[in-house]
Amino acid sequence: MARIIEVTDLDAPELAVFAHLTQAQLRNRLEPEKGILIAESPKVIRRALDAGYEPVSFLMERKKISGAEDLLCRSGDVPVYTGERETLAALAGYTLTRGVLCALRRPHLPEVEDLCAGARRLAVLEGIVDATNVGAIFRSAAALGVDGVLVTPTCCDPFCRRAVRVSMGTVFQVPWTQIGTRPEDWPEPGLTRLRALGFSTAAMALSERSLSVEDPRLRAEEKLAIVLGTEGDGLARETIAGCDYTVRIPMARGVDSLNVAAASAVAFWELRAR
């Protein structure tokens, strides 16, 4: 059973994961086996545990403990740091979502080839830096049958706290990994790597020469990677030129485009594997 520990010193080193460490320090690129991610709210934490993620510690409002027996029973002998709502908000710098945070071991990411094995629909996120958008895209990917997500080296980390929360824990359900480790690894050789794995590539971009997302040629593709670009500028010209298709979502009332998270949901549904 988890160990309940009262928070008395906001600067205690064992609480640093909830308060003082930057996202880069949590990720710990030099020693990924020591990397940590933070999940918020019981629902999100349950999804992480269901997916086999290893809890390290909890930060939990005292009044929430009695309603979290299932989480604590599943988590073994891990510390549960607790206190009043105001105390924990002062520690974390924000009010805890549903009164609960959990630090989890960050897993090793799969190889691109392993993630793609057996997949028919992929999402590729190019340089999307807003954690809210990344989380929302993962939620749509989980709901609409996308088999896996690839993020380019310039993309926001899907395991950052806000992306995890906005995704409602679906980042623990949809397989994902990074395609390349340096900015120069995308779009080439990344696109060539996808083609070698049997995927056609569809760049979501505004162009007079683009196909409608409803085009039957897209639906007929056995393996399709849907490439989504960064907020504002969209996909790089090199990426659009290197993809097999350029795809647009038809718009009404003079609207020129959708937010990338909204566009992803439309594309995932329309281009789902039949």
UniProtKB/TrEMBL annotation:
<dbReference type="GO" id="GO:0032259">
    <property type="term" value="P:methylation"/>
</dbReference>
<protein>
    <submittedName>
        <fullName>RNA methyltransferase</fullName>
    </submittedName>
</protein>
<dbReference type="GO" id="GO:0006396">
    <property type="term" value="P:RNA processing"/>
</dbReference>
<keyword id="KW-0808">Transferase</keyword>
<dbReference type="InterPro" id="IPR029064">
    <property type="entry name" value="Ribosomal_eL30-like_sf"/>
</dbReference>
<dbReference type="InterPro" id="IPR029028">
    <property type="entry name" value="Alpha/beta_knot_MTases"/>
</dbReference>
<dbReference type="InterPro" id="IPR051259">
    <property type="entry name" value="rRNA_Methyltransferase"/>
</dbReference>
<dbReference type="Pfam" id="PF00588">
    <property type="entry name" value="SpoU_methylase"/>
</dbReference>
<dbReference type="InterPro" id="IPR029026">
    <property type="entry name" value="tRNA_m1G_MTases_N"/>
</dbReference>
<keyword id="KW-0489">Methyltransferase</keyword>
<dbReference type="GO" id="GO:0008173">
    <property type="term" value="F:RNA methyltransferase activity"/>
</dbReference>
<feature type="domain" description="tRNA/rRNA methyltransferase SpoU type">
    <location>
        <begin position="123"/>
        <end position="268"/>
    </location>
</feature>
<dbReference type="InterPro" id="IPR001537">
    <property type="entry name" value="SpoU_MeTrfase"/>
</dbReference>
<dbReference type="GO" id="GO:0003723">
    <property type="term" value="F:RNA binding"/>
</dbReference>
